[in-house]
Structures are given as C-alpha cells and as structure tokens.
Design goal:
Number of domains of chain B: 2
Largest sheet of chain A: 6 strands, mixed
Number of strands of chain B: 9
Strand content of chain A: 15-25%
Number of helices of chain A: 14
CATH class of the largest domain in chain A: Alpha Beta
Number of strands of chain A: 17
Distance between the termini of chain A: 46 Å
Largest interface: A-B, 18 and 14 residues
Number of domains of chain A: 2
Helix content of chain A: 25-40%
Helix content of chain B: 25-40%
Distance between the termini of chain B: 83 Å
Radius of gyration of chain A: 21 Å
Largest sheet of chain B: 3 strands, antiparallel
Number of helices of chain B: 13
Oligomer: heterodimer
Strand order of the largest sheet of chain B: 2-3-9
Radius of gyration of chain B: 28 Å
CATH architecture of the largest domain in chain A: 3-Layer(aba) Sandwich
Strand order of the largest sheet of chain A: 1-14-13-17-15-16
Strand content of chain B: 5-15%
CATH superfamily of the largest domain in chain A: NADH-ubiquinone oxidoreductase 51kDa subunit
C-alpha cells in the first residue's frame, strides 16, 4: 500500500503527454522582458537603467526586503527600457526589457557540465549564496528559498522533504529534471540538508513516474541520508501540507508553517537551482518548463531563459493549434489563463498548457445540490460549498471562523462539483478579504 | 366557593407584589432616550439604505440628535427637504446641501474599447478584478459584470446590453453610494447634480500613459493636459495621466469638452450647441463627435427642443 495524504484529494486524468520528451534548449530570443516581481513578497528594485550593458547572470534588480528575491539578467545585451508590461499575472507590472546581443556570461559562472559533488560551502554561506542567486520555490508558488531555509529561533528542522510529486496533470518538467539531472538534484538536496542542519531528506515522487523513482533510488545509494519515497498518485499531493502528511504522517496545525512539525519542503527544481547556485555560482536565470496540450504538434520540455515571450515557446513546440481555447500558464488545476502570448516566462513558469476550445470553456453554473462532494475531496477538511456562500454574502467573520485561510486553492472542489459551481473563485475572494482584515488587525 | 375567593385574592396579592417590584426595578434601570430620536426617525425616509454612513435610519437619527451641528450630515435619499425638516425638529438651521448623483466614469463600449480576451469565470466584478486586468486592454475601466447594478436598492441602474456599461437613471438615483462601494475599479463617482442636471465630467479612469490608454480605448483620457490649459476656472487637475474636473469649481462652460482630442470629457443634459460659423475649421470638425452620447440621443429624438433635452434623464 503506497503512502498518500490523509484527507480528501482527487485523481484527474494525468495526460502527461510530454513525459518521454527530453529537455531541449529554447533559442535565446531577440528581446527579453524580465518582470521585477517574479516571487511572493516585495518586488525587487531595478539596479540598471536604460542603455546599460548587461551580461548573462548579472544582477539587474535587487531584493528589497527579507521576503523578496534578486533578479538576474538571463541574456547579454543592452537594457532597452524599464517599463510596465502585461505579465502572466494578468496585470501590468514593471519589467526590465533587454535587447539581446550575443551570449556573454559573467566570468564568475562555472559553465562546465562536470558534476561537483564536494560541498565546500558552510551553512551560512549556502543560504547567502541561495539568496544572492535569487532562488525561489520553482514548484509554482515562487516563495523565496532562503526565507524557508532560515529556520526561526526556537524551531528546529528535523527533515528536508523534496517535492518531486508533480501532481498537476500534463506537467512533466520536474519528471525530466529528475531523469536528466538526477545527480545534480541529489547534490542540491545535500546542500539544502547542510543549510538546514538535518541528516535526513525524503524525496516524494508519485508512482506515475516509475522511471524517475527507479533512477533516483539507484543514485540515492551514493548519497547519505536521502530516501526516495514513492507515493500514490493523488492531487494535490504537491501541496506542502499534503506532502508532509503523505511522507512523514505529521499534520500541520491550522495557520502554522511546516517548520512547526520540523519539516522544510523544497521543490526538486529548486534543488537543481540550489546546486547550480552553490556549486557553479550560477544565479537563477533559466529553468525548465513543459509545453503541452492535446492538439499541440509537439508536447515537449524546454530549458528557457527567463523573460522569453510565451510565443517563442509555443512556436518551438509546433505553433499554436487552430482549436486553442485557452492558454494556461502552469498546470490545468492551479494555472492561470493568459490574456496574450506576449507575456514573458518567469521563474514560476513550470508549464504552458494549450487547451482545446471545448475543454477550455466553463460549464454553466447550477444551484448546489448538497451532495457534499466538495467537502469529501477538500484536502484541508474545509466545507467549500459553505465558504462560497459566505464569501458571496460578505460574512467575513464566519469565513474566518470556518478556516478559509487554510484553503490552499488547489481547486479540487471546483473540479469535482457536479453543478459546476465556481467554488474556488469565491473562496479565493473571501480569502483575500479575510486576509486583509486579519492584517489590518495586527 | 371559598376556593375561588382565595384564588382571586392570592392572584391579586401576587400581582400587586410583582407590580411594586417592577415599579422599583423600572426606576432603578431606567434608560433615558431622547424623545427627539423617535421624532427624527419618523421624519427620515425609512429606506435603511445606509447611504448616510450610519446603520439604518435609526442610527442616523441617533447621530443627528447627538450632534451639535448637522451641517455635515445628509440623508441622500431624502435630500434637502428631509434635512430641513430634521433641522426644524432639532432646532438647527440647515444650509441647503447640493444634491449629488452617481456618474459612471467609463465610456469603454464594445466599439470604443475592443475586447482582447474573454472572461468566463464567476460573474462578479470583484472576482474578475482580483484575477486580472479585464477583458480589454484597459485595466482601469468597467468590467461590465454589473456588480453595481446588483448593489443598487432603488432600481436606479441597469446594464446596457449594447454598450456593456451600466446606466444610471437619474430620476431614481438617490446618491446613496452603494454602487460606488460595489465597484472594484472605482469608476462610479457621486458628483454634484448641477443646475438642470447639467454636468461636465471626464468619463475615464485610465491612468496609463497616453499611448497605451489610447491603444486600449478610443475614448480614453490620454493625459494631454489640453483641458487643464483651456479651463478658465482652474477646475481641472491632471494626475497620473488622468484629468479630473472638480465639480465645485466647474462653471459648466464646456470649453474642455471641445478641446478634448479623444472625447473623454462628457457633457450631460445641455441644450444642443449652436453651430458657429466655420471660423475655426479644426474645432468645428471635432464638434459633431465631441459628445458621443449626444449622437445616440440624436437618433432617438432628433432635433428636440432644449427643454425636452432636460428631461432625458439617463446618464452614462
């Protein structure tokens, strides 16, 4: 019996169309637009101005607080302008637009492909390097990685959990990273273990990726303290709290962080980025993303430079299919539809999904039939049908009492609702309002 | 027989004792309430709309009775007559407050502001606004999902299917401000009603730079500042690429309407302009399109008398 999390969950069609496609390198575009806010927290402050020459890996926007991240140039060339452009969030945000000229890297970056196993950096130095490299959680939430690694006083980390679940249907970028960069990921894991002072790490992988499980299990023998933990395929296992529940059977109290139960979770892509930052001095300016879709000619995985327009990725995969109804940034469950193909790919872009028209349109919402399916699938044990009504009626006190802030916005409720009710839309709205009220109280 | 007598006597005794106790309790715990509160409440319209900012008409009445000076209080439903009545009850003199009316500051019709994408999420402006910048290139304008109409308790608003924008029925609008609060993009504003309901306002809230605003919407304010220079009364200010007309300073001369290159400034309920002899061909060519609304009206009732025009109460 394989492990999984204790409460709720769904199993949508997996559709991992691009699982067997090796990672390819996306050509460098002519211009990149690098948003200064690609992470949760305060936007970075630009340190370059118009007409400045930049190299690959050069700092172009500086972290502006503890919860913030540095941004580096992904190309070499000239800063064309700093302007507000539409990004994947659907709002116009400040971005640094760079005209590409050649591909000249910073001298400090080690560009060789050799695996560096020896970890020479100490704990403090590792965290410092991770912060300098602007590494954020690459699973999609884009929470600055160094913040998670700085364990608050009075708490101790006992175990590091590497999130290699990739529970979103369609996406395969983490899967390919494990197969092609297995050693780097495991060295990255060891670096993270050293930073946290833990001697145990668990890599949670869903069993729909047997090749990755086999590959990493074979490699893990060479690394001390790393266990590979196969998990039953169940959405949303990639949620931090769900993954902790699945791997170490600990439940995080409402409103608390994973460190409360002694766990720190990092994505497998983050582990790779950490390896590159600490061992190779390479800041986070490229990552792997999946482009996929049932009508797409060539569903595949690509390593791209941050700031590349979405359009380039679509073109590389065979162009926009005729019947595209929606372009989703991210996976089908938690991703967000894009309004234009001109938006740049960012640190948080784990995939791009082109949905055919008939699958893209929402069905008509009907009255709630009180079947309770949303309650049974909610991985946080909430009552989505009730939260939706409360949010609609602006009953924020009751929303708070009913733990709306625990919602992880996985969308299982909306997915499962037979009446097609926009449950998550309203819950997210209520969550935003309650969050505002709670912050104003402090 | 004696049982009946005893019962009656016992009940009377209990009744009298209870009455005495209640009398003293009532004395002890008496709460004095100003009788004027009831009187004032009686005078208020009992709509309980909350437009005054207090919880219902009674809450407003309590606040009015407590206040030393009721100049800053206004019942938006009852307006000046109700306030002067209240003033009479409370013995205050009331200056006639200027009546206000809700104004929709967006003219991004389907024609003026082409859609760049299609929203099929939950039908709520607040949700749409929290998700992204909307179905058009303009991230400030009306989202067209009608949350303001739902918020209106007086049936004073409806969504125009053709333009996709809310329309305020001036006669019914009591200026309670519910729609203003409901709109996540702050498009609706309460503005002075003006003499004969004549008003001039900037029908745009786009703070983008001119080129971006213009690209998204044909009738956007591009922040060119021509109106600011033209205004003889310093009523217009330009902030964040957006002009704003201060209705307290505006003398309704309508010069700004003529100079606005994108027709973002609207005039309402004015009689049709007299065509001047073509001494300035540039402005003359602008004039016919100066007020897109006037054009629409012209189709409905071509060449109507100025008086009849005053009766047109719809306000975009």
């Amino acid at each position: 019996m394989l492990k999984t999390f204790s409460l709720g969950g769904i199993h949508p069609a997996e559709n991992k169309l691009s699982a067997s496609s090796a990672i390819q390198v996306l050509p460098i575009p002519e211009t990149v637009s690098i948003p200064i806010s690609q992470h949760i927290g305060a936007p970075a402050t630009p340190v370059v101005k118009k007409n400045d020459e930049v190299k690959v890996g050069q700092l172009i926007a500086k972290s502006s607080g503890f919860v913030s991240a540095n941004i580096h140039s992904s190309v070499s060339g000239t800063v064309f302008k700093v302007d507000d452009i539409m990004d994947a969030s659907g709002f116009r945000k400040t971005s640094i637009i760079i005209k590409v000229d050649g591909d000249e890297w910073m001298e400090t970056i080690d560009r060789s492909e050799d695996l560096v196993k020896e970890i020479s950096a100490g704990k403090e130095e590792i965290i410092k390097k991770i912060a300098e490299a602007g590494i954020v959680g690459l699973g999609g939430a884009t929470f600055p990685a160094h913040v998670k690694l700085s364990v608050p006083p009075g708490k101790t980390a006992e175990v590091l959990i590497i999130n290699a679940v990739e529970c979103e249907p369609y996406l395969t970028s983490d899967h390919r990273v494990m197969l092609e960069k297995g050693d780097e990921v495991l060295v990255g894991t060891q670096i993270l273990m050293k930073a946290l002072d833990v001697d145990r790490a668990i890599v949670g992988i869903e069993n729909n990726k047997p090749d990755a499980i086999a590959h990493l299990t074979k490699l893990a023998g060479n690394y001390k303290g790393i266990e590979i933990c196969p998990l039953k395929t169940q959405y949303p296992q990639g949620g931090e709290k769900q993954l902790i529940s699945a791997t170490i059977k600990r439940e995080i109290p409402s409103g608390a962080l994973p460190i409360e139960v002694g766990a720190v979770v990092q994505n497998v892509g983050t582990a790779l980025a950490v390896y590159e930052a600490v061992q190779k001095n390479k800041p986070l300016f490229e990552r792997v993303a999946t482009i996929t879709g049932k009508s797409l000619k060539n569903p595949s995985n690509w390593k791209f430079r941050i700031g590349t327009p979405v359009k380039d990725l679509i073109d590389a995969a065979g162009g926009l299919p005729e019947d595209t109804g929606k372009i989703v940034g991210g996976g089908p469950m938690m991703g967000k539809a894009l309004t234009t193909v001109d938006v740049p790919l960012t640190k948080g872009s784990s995939g791009l999904l082109l949905l055919p028209r008939e699958e893209a349109v929402r069905k008509e919402s009907k009255p709630c039939i009180r079947c309770g399916k949303c309650v049974s699938v909610c991985p946080m044990g909430l009552e989505p049908f009730l939260l939706m009504v409360l949010a609609d009626k602006k009953e924020y006190d009751r929303l708070e009492n009913d733990a709306v802030m625990d919602c992880i916005e996985c969308g299982s409720c909306s997915f499962t609702c037979p009446a097609n009710r926009p449950l998550l839309d309203y819950i997210r709205l209520g969550k935003g309002k309650v969050g505002q009220i709670m912050r104003s109280r402090k | 027989m004696s049982i009946i007598v005893i019962t009656i006597l016992a009940l009377c005794a209990i009744g009298v004792t209870a009455a005495i106790i209640l009398f003293f309790v009532a004395q002890k715990f008496k709460v004095y309430e100003d009788p004027r509160i009831d009187e004032v409440e009686e005078a208020l319209p009992a709509a309980n709309c909350g437009g005054c900012g207090y919880p219902g008409c009674r809450g407003f009445a309590e606040a009015l009775v407590k206040a030393d000076n009721i100049d800053n209080f206004l019942c938006p439903v009852g307006g000046a007559p109700v306030m002067s009545h209240v003033g009479a009850i409370l013995g205050h003199e009331v200056k006639a407050a200027e009546p206000t009316v809700a104004v929709v500051r967006c003219n991004g019709t389907c024609e003026n502001r082409p859609k760049t994408n299609q929203y099929d999420g939950a039908p709520s402006c607040t949700i749409a606004a929290s998700l992204y910048s909307g179905e058009t290139g303009c991230q400030f304008g009306c989202l067209g999902l009608g949350e303001c109409v739902d918020a209106c308790n007086f049936d004073a608003m409806y969504m125009d299917k053709e333009t996709g924008l809310p329309v305020i029925i001036e006669d019914k609008c009591v200026s309670c401000g519910a729609c203003v609060k409901a709109c996540p993009n702050n498009i609706i504003e309460l503005r002075k009603k003006g003499p004969k309901s004549r008003r001039v306002f900037v029908s745009c809230v786009n703070k983008d730079k001119g080129a971006i605003a213009k690209k998204a919407c044909d009738v956007a304010c591009i922040g060119c500042g021509k109106c600011v220079k033209e205004c003889p009364f310093d009523a217009i200010t330009l902030e964040n690429n957006l002009a704003y007309i201060d209705y307290n300073k505006c003398k309704l001369c309508r010069k700004c309407v003529i100079v606005c290159p994108t027709n973002a400034i609207h005039e309402l309920n004015f009689p049709p302009r007299k065509e001047k002899p073509a001494e300035k061909p540039t402005t003359a060519s602008v004039k016919p399109v100066a007020a897109p609304k006037a054009e629409v009206k012209a189709e409905e009732a071509p060449k109507i008398e100025p008086k009849a025009n005053d009766d047109t109460t719809e306000n975009k």
